Amino acid sequence: MLIENFLPDIFSKEPLYVQIGQFIKQQIRSGQLPPGTKLPSLRRLAAVLQISRTTAETCYNQLMAEGFVESLPQKGYYAADILLSEKKPAAKPAGGKTSPDVQYDFANNYIDATTFPAALWRRHISRALRDRELLSGYGDPQGELALRQALAEYSHESRGVSCAPEQIIIGAGVQSLLEIISAVLLDSVFAESAPCVSLEEPGFPQAEEIFRRNHWNVSHFTIEAMQPELPRLLYVSPSNPYKGRSLTPEQRRNLLRWSREHQTYILEDDYNGEFRYFSTPVTSLQGMSDGDHILYLGSFSRLLLPSLRLSYAVLPPGLLPAYEKNRMLYNQTASTIEQLALAGFITEGSLRRHVKKLKHLYKEKNTLLRQCLQRYFEGQVHILSYESGLHMRIALRNPESSLILAGKALEKGVKVIPIKTEPPHPEFLLSFAGIRMQDIEPAVKLLKECW
User: Fold this and answer.
1) Which of 99, 146, 178, 235 would give a disulfide with 267, using CB separation of 3.0 to 4.6 Å?
2) Which residues does residue 393 pair with via DSSP β-bridges, in sequence order?
3) Which helix (H) or strand (E) holds 169?
């Protein structure tokens, strides 16, 4: 649900239930939550937003009192049909209180732009612009053949993925590919049954919203508690930083064994799978299996630039007929020019060299950040996960919640991502991708001062 994108204003004097209620009302007023849209249950809302059930219940009770939400017995909570006003909201007066300036950003969703080989990329863009025949049309709906051929080789070399170019679909971001995957599965795997997907905890709100909009039933599961009644599609992110760790080899084997025994499909989102710093790189689930029941997702948002919206999906051979039947219904969302440039970038070995450079840089940042945390916090910080990805997950020994502590850090100019909020061990994610090497130690010093 879009509701799950809510982020609290840690500087606001408004209670948390009021902030959540205002967020939901804004979505209802704007039409993002149309009348009749089912809202998360109290338990689901509390789990996703990491709030108490009492806070969730108080929020919904207030919304029902104001007429924005309806409660249907034995069914749940729904967005009410309200009369929208044409009056535009008044502009905020100038000179009001503003958020503190961020000097050190551990909560960034970007990379260090200085690492990107801009001159080399411009050369490949220039080469792509010379291919007038390919650029004169809308492009192959499945993606340019040159890029699919390059990706088949690169993904096998870097992640152990075994596939042919015909199995690869190119798109502008993972979410556009999920729309296609959803349709393919509805036409094949779930042609005669209700479509259901279960995502590995803590889930992926944007992906869940896409599935729900396509009338899927969405749930969550944990690798530690695999149950026979789980649906026929499981969504996993082996390097997802929000769960604080990568899947262990045993968990990978158990997941593949479970999929084979129950004839289910696994949708593997290999987000940042290339970045593993202190041990041998782990092969993708797709590469560990026979490939018949694994759908693989890869992206270049962190390998190159987030603004370069290029992602790809690998379909099992058995799902290709369902895709081929409707492939012409999906226009290509990725730029042909950028596809051809990336194909050349991969083929000549530039991507492999660039990733090697990034892994070395991020390993140094990772090591320096751990050393600084251990030096300045001593036993006050427990580092939960750091071996892969672009985030470090830490637990702090402190009697205050992570939201309050994140607010204190922001007042000092340091931005962090609060996760588990409850003391005495509040948890945070610290991203080291975009912060400069020379800024890590002074940023940790400031965290020590305010924590």
Assistant:
1) 235
2) 385, 429
3) strand 168-171
Q: Using one digit for the tens of pLDDT, what is the confidence trace for 168-212?
A: 999 998 999 999 999 999 999 998 899 999 998 878 888 999 999
**Averaged over 438-444, what is the pLDDT?**
95
Give how far the C-alpha of residue 290 lies from the chain's centroid of Cα atoms, to the nearest Å: 26
Q: If you search the block for the tokens 């950003």, which residue do you land on? A: 105
Closest CA to 49 of 106, 93, 7: 7
Q: pLDDT tens digits, residue range 108-165?
A: 666 777 788 889 999 999 998 987 777 777 789 999 999 999 999 999 998 889 999 9
Beta strand 233-236 pairing with 217-221 = unpaired
Closest CA to 385 of 237, 276, 293, 304: 276
CB environment 235-247: b (16+ within 10 A), e (fewer): bbbbbbbebbbbb
What are 55's strand-pairing partners?
none
CA distance 220 to 215: 16
Task: Measure the N-to-C terminal CA separation of the chain; round to a whole number of Å.
Answer: 33
pTM reported for the whole predicted model = 0.74
Strand partners, 299: 311
